[in-house]
């Protein structure tokens, strides 16, 4: 049932906290899911095969594994409690995908994975590589020459383009990134400086994807990385979810029936947060509760899930303008591939006004000296919402209200380290 009250709030750009009425116990839905645990493990194995190559060409990685740390953010928690006059029960931590090597955002997980998978498929098909080789040979000129015969294309609001552009250019592919009007100038400039062709559109993200797809289809040597539909992208993100298990274990953080994990993920088209949530569910099942965060001006996934219409509805149909400072989340129409997977797996979605992205940005900088891009702050409203009446309702329904002191809240910081200093200063000033 779609609450008409919430629909009206969405239309009038009010922040909402929507609890998914279709949310189901993970064991009851796992057999109906389109990708298996083995598929995620396979993706993880492929990334390991590439580790010697990545280590060689991106010296900033540790052992060629592209991963980010997790930071405790106790001061930020205290600041949020003070600013919002609420009690955040449990522990607050931050997953630092802003620090992911190479492309500094969550989109590096899927984007880089799909580029590598494509390169591997081509090289194996042409008898240049076997999965038993040491993949550091891929850095040799003969491979670069080979890959230069192929094109990779992608439509992006910015960060996916960055991750694909940077990795593809290193491998030797020719790359074309189709970018929407919301994409920040510095992201376009950075890509061009890496030798990537950037085509700009005066329309939004969905149009950039559509154009890219069309142009790629007309060339048999071109591969289109489809942010709306790609299983490979999704699996790349899902590996990020799997790896949380070891990280939390090392930090001494328990996740079990008595110690729930709540994860708050900024959402654009849905692939990044959807894939991560998917991986997390395979690890923790019903003990992890995943929420997406979207700007009040671009609640695409929220509308898709609430109405069950997925990509048959856009924010425009709701009279919303899809204009937000959170460029990575400026998506008007959600992925139906991801939406259908999330239908029973996602606990809920909340929206956040742009002004709060900035106040969180500045607070996090002041309290923790962590600097994120605006999109990456969207999840911070999650722990605040969870302390509200609706949050308590959710906890009671899940039978964990009496365990809320044991909750670990994890906000997923989805990007930021590549933002130029002058622009970050401007963001900080705005938040102040
Ligand atoms: C910083 C940042 N956070 C979150 C997202 C959302 O990812 P997705 O569009 O896959 O939902 C993006 C997308 O580009 C992003 O750039």
UniProtKB/TrEMBL annotation:
EC number: 4.3.1.18
Family: Belongs to the serine/threonine dehydratase family. DsdA subfamily.
Entry keyword set: Lyase, Pyridoxal phosphate
Substrates-to-products reaction catalysed: D-serine = pyruvate + NH4(+)
GO MF entry, a single one: hydro-lyase activity
Domain of life: Bacteria
Alphabetical list of NCBIfam families matching this protein: D_Ser_am_lyase, PRK02991.1
GO terms of biological process kind: D-serine catabolic process; isoleucine biosynthetic process
Pfam families recorded: PALP
Protein name in UniProt: Probable D-serine dehydratase
High-level lineage: Bacteria, Bacillati, Bacillota, Tissierellia, Tissierellales
Domain Tryptophan synthase beta chain-like PALP: start-end pairs: 81-382
Residues annotated with N6-(pyridoxal phosphate)lysine modification: 107
Cofactor entry: pyridoxal 5'-phosphate
């Amino acid at each position: 049932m779609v609450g008409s009250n919430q629909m009206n709030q969405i239309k009038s750009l009010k922040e909402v906290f929507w609890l998914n009425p279709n949310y189901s116990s993970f064991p009851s839905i796992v057999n109906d899911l389109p990708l298996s645990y083995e598929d995620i493990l396979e993706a993880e194995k492929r990334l390991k095969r590439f580790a010697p190559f990545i280590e060689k060409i991106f010296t900033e990685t540790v052992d060629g594994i592209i991963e980010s740390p997790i930071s405790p953010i106790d001061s930020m928690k205290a600041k949020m409690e003070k600013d919002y006059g609420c009690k955040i029960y449990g522990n607050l931590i931050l997953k630092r995908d802003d620090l992911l090597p190479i492309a500094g955002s969550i989109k590096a997980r899927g984007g880089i994975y799909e580029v590598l998978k494509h390169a591997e498929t081509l090289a194996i098909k042409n008898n240049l590589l076997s999965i038993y080789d040491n993949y550091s040979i891929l850095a040799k000129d003969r491979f670069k020459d080979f890959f230069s015969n192929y094109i990779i294309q992608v439509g992006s609001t910015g960060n996916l383009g960055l991750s694909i552009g940077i990795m593809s250019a290193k491998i030797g592919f020719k790359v074309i990134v189709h970018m929407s009007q919301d994409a920040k100038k510095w992201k376009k400039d950075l890509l061009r400086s890496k030798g990537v062709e950037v085509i700009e559109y005066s329309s939004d993200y969905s149009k950039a994807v559509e154009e890219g797809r069309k142009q790629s289809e007309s060339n048999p040597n071109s591969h289109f990385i489809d942010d709306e539909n790609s299983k490979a992208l999704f699996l790349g993100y899902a590996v990020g979810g799997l790896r949380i298990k070891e990280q939390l274990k090392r930090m001494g953080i328990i996740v079990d029936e008595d110690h729930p994990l709540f994860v708050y993920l900024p959402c654009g088209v849905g692939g990044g947060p959807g894939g991560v949530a998917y991986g997390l569910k395979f690890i923790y099942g019903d003990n992890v509760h995943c929420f997406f965060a979207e700007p009040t001006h671009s609640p695409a996934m929220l509308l898709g899930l609430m109405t069950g219409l997925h990509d048959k509805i856009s924010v425009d149909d709701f009279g919303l303008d899809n204009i937000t400072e959170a460029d990575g989340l400026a998506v008007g129409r959600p992925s139906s591939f991801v939406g259908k997977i999330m239908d029973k797996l996602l606990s809920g979605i909340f929206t956040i006004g742009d002004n709060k992205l900035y106040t969180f940005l500045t607070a996090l900088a002041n309290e923790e000296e962590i600097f994120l891009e605006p999109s990456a702050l969207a999840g911070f409203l999650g722990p605040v919402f969870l302390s509200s009446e609706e949050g308590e309702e959710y906890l009671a329904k899940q039978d964990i209200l009496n365990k809320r002191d044991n909750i670990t809240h994890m906000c997923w910081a989805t990007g930021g380290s590549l933002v130029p200093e002058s622009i970050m200063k401007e963001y900080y000033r705005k938040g102040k």
